[in-house]
Design goal:
With about 130 residues, the protein is of the alpha/beta class. It contains 6 helices and 7 strands; from the N terminus they run E-H-E-E-E-E-H-H-E-H-H-H-E. Strands 4-3-2-5-6 form a 5-stranded mixed sheet. A two-stranded parallel sheet has the order 1-7.
Length: about 130
């Protein structure tokens, strides 16, 4: 089990993402900012190439195309599947800066059965 929002958790998530299908042209550099956590704010990023997670690390991505900012509680609810990310965005609970079109282009991926299975696998090895 990896503690949520640690580099170990990100590394394990990347390994679990290896089986995701390729989706040519779905490329984005995402910065996540999780605020108001029990220890501190957490910043991490995902680099998605052809619909597959290719890199994820704690820290700042200087050339992020999209930045998603949400509270710790909302981020945890989204991760656990208790809060729909699209609904949270529409409610203003997830703030988006940057290329919203790039983010919207990911919807077919994030709503796929493969991505849902990936999220479930990640949650199964996550200590919240």
């Amino acid at each position: 089990m990896s503690k949520w929002l640690t580099q170990e958790w990100l590394d394990e998530s990347l390994e679990l993402a290896r089986d995701q299908p390729e989706r040519p042209g779905s490329n984005v550099r995402l910065q996540y900012v999780v605020t108001d956590g029990p220890d501190r704010d957490v910043r991490y990023y995902w680099i998605v190439v052809d619909g597959r997670l290719s890199e994820t690390r704690l820290g700042e991505l200087a050339d992020a195309e999209v930045t998603l900012t949400q509270t710790y509680d909302d981020a945890m609810a989204v991760q656990r599947g208790e809060l729909d990310a699209t609904a949270a965005f529409l409610q203003g609970r997830i703030k988006v800066d940057g290329d919203v079109g790039k983010l919207m282009a990911l919807l077919p991926i994030t709503t796929s059965s493969e991505f849902k299975a990936f999220t479930e696998a990640v949650n199964a090895v996550t200590e919240f």
